[in-house]
Amino acid sequence: MQDDYQARQKRRPAQHQPQQPGHEEEMTPRPIFIRDDYRGSGKLKDKVALITGGDSGIGRAVAVHYAREGADMTIVYLNEHEDAQETKRLVEAEGRTCLLLAGDIGDEAFCHDSVAAMIERFGKLDILVNHAGEQHPTAGIEEISADQLERTFRTNVFSFFYMARAAIEHMQAGSVIINTSSVTAYRGSGHLIDYAASNGAIAAFTRSLAQALANRNIRVNGVAPGPIWTPLIPASFEAEEVEKFGSNTPLGRAGQPAEVGPCYVFLASADASYMIGQELHPNGGQFMST
């Protein structure tokens, strides 16, 4: 499988998509969302998860891994209907149920309504994965408008607050919240200043919420991926940058969603029962290269 990851990296041509959040069906090559030899072992049997941004990329990988481990789920996404339907098909092929909800997670009312719809459909919520996000590369801080700054934080940070606040009302002891941040929260990014700042906020939110909910035995942790081949990449960067994406890591390539999904399985399962306020870092060793 390692050879397959490397081969797909070498075949990746320059490409660009005109707007975010991007569409997986338009990527060449398509991301690998789960290994062919990944064997579920019932780690999440009969659990119910809500995954924001679960339609494609890492979110799709989380959804399919969770399904293979025995979970049903609700996937919340913006407007990538074709990608969402494909992820639903993949989840159902694993024998699990998938509810799709489209809307803007930057809207508090939509977040509340999404949790309510999930409770109506499944009757419970065991795992919340706050994953959806957006990024807008700029040449410097001078190009970051007030509107862009607010939009980035509304999607990347406010939505995490909104979803968590709505979810914990229905969570029991043993429930789990997993927040996605980014390697940029730890190493910074000169061309993604607002995005990196929002991910720093997510890291602090994860640690703080973990402390606040520990006495209720609701575990909160995070995952901070490095350069992963997802629709957000061709939708964020120019074609020439996409072609080189991830080549500056010690492994010399971008990661695949299949290499990140198991992190979310671990944190959602009883295997991580003594972990709170922690971040996992699937980043190809990028810390070592800075």
Give an account of the 3D structure.
- With 290 residues, this protein is of the alpha/beta class.
- The chain has one domain (44-225, 256-279): Rossmann fold, CATH 3.40.50.
- The protein contains nine helices and seven strands, in the order H-E-H-E-H-E-H-E-H-E-H-H-E-H-H-E.
- It has helices at residues 2-11, 57-68, 81-93, 108-122, 146-168, 184-187, 193-213, 239-244, 261-268, and strands at residues 48-52, 72-77, 98-102, 127-130, 176-180, 219-223, 279-280.
- It has a seven-stranded parallel beta sheet with strand order 3-2-1-4-5-6-7, sandwiched between helices.
- Helix 3 (81-93) links the parallel strand 2 and strand 3.
- Helix 5 packs parallel to helix 7 (193-213).
- The longest helix is centred in the middle third of the chain and has 23 residues, at 146-168.
- The chain starts with a helix and ends in a 10-residue tail after the last strand.
- The mean pLDDT is 93.
Quick rundown:
By secondary structure, this protein is α/β, with parallel strands linked by helices. 39% of the residues lie in helices and 11% in strands.
Share of helical residues:
25-40%
Spatially, the strands of the biggest sheet line up as 3-2-1-4-5-6-7
Q: What is the CATH architecture descriptor?
A: 3-Layer(aba) Sandwich
Give the uncertain stretches in residue-range form: none
Indicate the overall shape: globular
